[in-house]
Amino acid sequence: MGYGIETRCIHGEKNEVMEHSYGAVSIPIYQTATFAHPGIGETTGHNYTRESNPTREELEKTISSLEGAFDTVACSTGMAAISLCLEVFDSGAHIVCTDDLYGGSVRIFGVIGERRGLQFSYVDTSDAAQVEEAIKENTKALYIETPSNPTMKVTDLSAMKELAQKHGLLLIVDNTFLSPYLQNPLELGADIVVHSGTKFLGGHNDTLAGFLSTSRQDIAERVRALYKTVGSCLSPFDSFLILRGLKTLAVRVERQQSNAGKLASWLKQHPKVKQVYYVGLPEHPGFEVNCKQSRGAGSMLSFRVDAEETARGVLERVKLISYAESLGGVESLITYPMLQTHGDVPVEIREKLGITETFLRLSVGIENVEDLIADLEQALG
Ligand SMILES: *Cc1c(COP(=O)(O)O)cnc(C)c1O
Fold this sequence. Notes:
Blueprint: H1 5-11, H2 54-67, E1 71-75, H3 78-86, E2 94-98, H4 103-113, E3 119-123, H5 128-134, E4 139-145, H6 157-167, E5 170-174, H7 179-182, E6 192-196, E7 210-214, H8 217-230, H9 236-246, H10 249-268, E8 273-277, H11 287-293, E9 300-305, H12 308-317, E10 322-323, E11 333-335, H13 347-353, E12 359-363, H14 369-380
Parallel strand pairs: 2-3, 2-4, 4-5, 5-6, 10-11
Antiparallel strand pairs: 1-7, 6-7, 8-9, 9-12, 11-12
Helix pairs in contact: 1-2, 2-9, 3-4, 12-14
Bound molecules: pyridoxal-5'-phosphate (PLP).
């Protein structure tokens, strides 16, 4: 019997975790670039920190335990992990993606991926028929975010797995929005999971990190070789900070989710709020699929207000909630996707997705929920 996920956030698999010197309960920060060899052709297990480092290794093993992965590499940012993911493909490969992916992913696919000879199609992956229609002879992978950012569309991962198997594709999932505490795509058949560790995993809006986890040994070997070659690695100190954040992942996410549920219900009845996009609301079109494939709805929600003036007023008047990019941390943050995360997206596509001047995205933190409601109440005016 393995440990429960709350325990694994703190202890990993334990049997794999090394005993620390002097009985230290938390792992030391091995702030060293290189490791001396005990003899000719011998190694302590670590040679050079770009390749591996004990602090980072403990973090990688903990994430592998949480995601049920064969192997995980810890990268300097989420984007570094996503860029490593592109390296798995040869020129000419075509990838079908969720249409409202994280803006940075769209940028890296367009700017770097396409120059490397990769091709991308963007479709509404919450509709499996559209995904199948987009698959071509040279399609090599499906790249999914569920729930999506910022319109919270839910994609059925089992249906994606079936399509991937039928057409011989890799299934890649960006699991940042729910975190491994709520959703484990590898266990549902995905081949690769990527994370922005900057968000829920670190959880304190203070450290950048990224992860690429895989269930497959062949992909793990390829990724490890690329990782040490290109140098995408997370520093020992930042590895320590993410490990420290992870210890409270379970309690943070529970509290954030409970706050988000209450805020979603409160927003729904506010006269200036026209629509609330939260996967935990039973009327959300993805509610049932999300229940089937995850353990919760998380703490990301978006809402549409009655006028641009109201939306701008909220951003200017919030006091407790910060008007800032990023998500998943203990502090609640609100963003204006039209200008920020989706600022680079062409107007027609943005409007089609519903990312307009009245649309706001909220990442709910762990504050007292009544204080958050009071802040939004005064900000909505
Ligand atoms: C933030 C984010 C990323 C990028 O991660 P960084 O750590 O900022 O590089 C990728 N995907 C999603 C869904 C994100 O929210």
